[in-house]
Write a structure and sequence with these properties.
By secondary structure, the protein is mainly α. It is 78% helix and 0% strand. The longest helix has 42 residues. The protein is globular, with a radius of gyration of 21 Å. The chain binds aspartic acid. The site of aspartic acid has 16 residues, from helix 15 and helix 17.
């Protein structure tokens, strides 16, 4: 078991690097032709990469359903569950507000959009950004009209709400529903072992995803946007290693470097897939086996975080606001900045954990302060790379908050955390 875990970390990172090199060779070394474009980039790489993401996504709904039911059941006490939920929500909101604030500050220090040669920016795709989602609707949508529909369409918040109620009631009904309780427990075991099985394909999936991304983009795609990208990446790094590191150290006394070391395979996975949702099973498993967080907590907080806590996305949105405002020479007031903090926090709640949604939600943030929505077109071309980086921060934020909450509630096994491997 130990050997497998060690290998997975190493192998995922070797695949990432190999994918990068092969992608670059494809972009610069091989001229566009049928074999390169159709057979490899849009054939083999696309099928194996996306096939892997689909296989992970296949696990999400049944796993979240079973594991939340089991978690709530074993917790039994609904008041305790409420307190854990409340603390988690506060952490999620605070880290998001902090993330956007950092992004706005970094944006104003680096000034990515000042002196921008707008002509130099050619967007790779001319995609139109769809309209905004109303906040009231986002709140109402938490209650499922039909739980089966929620599961079929993968509406995570609704699945979470339904599973919490089922788990709470199964605990309350006790003997009368032992059959169903057992079913949920066995379902959970089954889904966890299916996760391990699918993860065996991770090296190939990760390699293909990264190779395809870089084969398509190369370097010149993002040269004019380097300052913007640098600002986003810097803010992401501050959030990930500074804010999260400090939070973990101060609130739980745990060593952040050890944490990141153990959590690296999950971060590598999120980076290559740019999908928080697909990362849920691996994150819950790693937190349990390597960090020592009880599944009672993580089964609830990780899917919740993957759905509503998007610190990395909020950072991209904060920097994008400053970037586009500067590029269009629009002055933002203090009130505008506060509005951005509020709307980006709401956007983070409404952003689904799948690729590129953060970009769609950006229209809501832009509209709130009167920035031109066409400005988004400037950043579409290079967004995939930032999407990978921000998704990594999104899921790391969920895991850090989860670990702190678990530690506070005595659901943390320090021996596992201190174990090597
Ligand atoms: N790809 C991000 C995620 O899954 C969402 C986004 O920012 O587009 O967490």
């Amino acid at each position: 078991m130990k050997k497998f875990k060690y290998n997975l970390t190493t192998v995922i990172f070797i695949s990432l690097l190999l994918g990068f090199f092969v992608g670059m060779i494809f972009h610069y070394g091989i001229p566009s032709c049928y074999v390169r474009d159709t057979i490899f980039i849009d054939g083999l790489f696309y099928i194996l990469g996306n096939g892997f993401i689909r296989a992970m996504q296949m696990l999400v709904v049944p796993l979240v359903l079973c594991s939340i039911i089991c978690g709530t059941m074993s917790m039994g006490d609904t008041r305790k569950m409420g307190r854990i939920g409340g603390t988690t929500l506060v952490f999620y909101l605070l880290t998001t507000v902090l993330a956007i604030t950092i992004a706005l500050v970094i944006g104003n220090i680096i000034n990515p959009g000042v002196d921008l040669d707008m002509q130099a920016i050619r967007t790779a795709e001319t995609q139109t950004v769809k309209g905004e989602t109303s906040f009231v609707q986002t709140i109402l949508d938490i209650i499922p009209l039909n739980p089966f529909e929620a599961m079929a369409t993968g509406n995570m918040l609704q699945v979470i709400v339904f599973a919490l109620i089922v788990g709470g009631l199964l605990a309350y009904l006790g003997e009368k529903t032992t059959g169903l309780a057992k079913l949920a427990e066995q379902g959970n075991t089954l889904m966890m072992s299916m996760t391990t099985l699918v993860m065996k394909a991770a090296p190939i999936g990760v390699f293909c995803l990264i190779a395809r991304t870089f084969a398509n983009i190369g370097f010149e795609g993002f040269a004019p946007m380097l300052k913007y990208m640098g600002a986003v990446l810097l803010a992401l790094a501050i959030q990930c290693f500074g804010v999260y590191g400090l939070m973990l150290k101060l609130l739980s006394g745990l060593n952040p470097i050890r944490f990141i070391n153990k959590f690296l395979p999950v971060m590598g996975f999120a980076f290559s897939t740019a999908t928080s949702n697909a990362t849920i099973p691996l994150s819950i498993g790693t937190l349990k086996r390597k960090i020592g967080v009880s599944e009672e907590i993580s089964s609830f907080t990780i899917p919740l975080g993957a759905t509503i806590n998007m610190d990395g996305t909020a950072i991209m949105q904060g920097v994008a606001v400053v970037f586009v405002a500067q590029a269009y020479s629009i002055d933002l007031s203090m009130t505008d900045y506060l509005t951005v903090i509020a709307t980006a926090t709401m956007a983070s709640i409404g952003t689904a954990g799948v690729p590129s949604v953060g970009l769609v939600m950006l229209s809501m943030v832009f509209t709130s302060v009167g920035l031109p929505v066409e400005g988004i077109a400037m950043i579409i071309g290079i967004d995939r790379i930032l999407d990978m980086a921000r998704t990594t921060v999104n899921i790391t934020g969920d895991a850090i908050c989860t670990t702190i909450v678990a530690k506070m509630n005595g659901k943390f096994d320090k021996n596992i955390f201190l174990n090597k491997g």
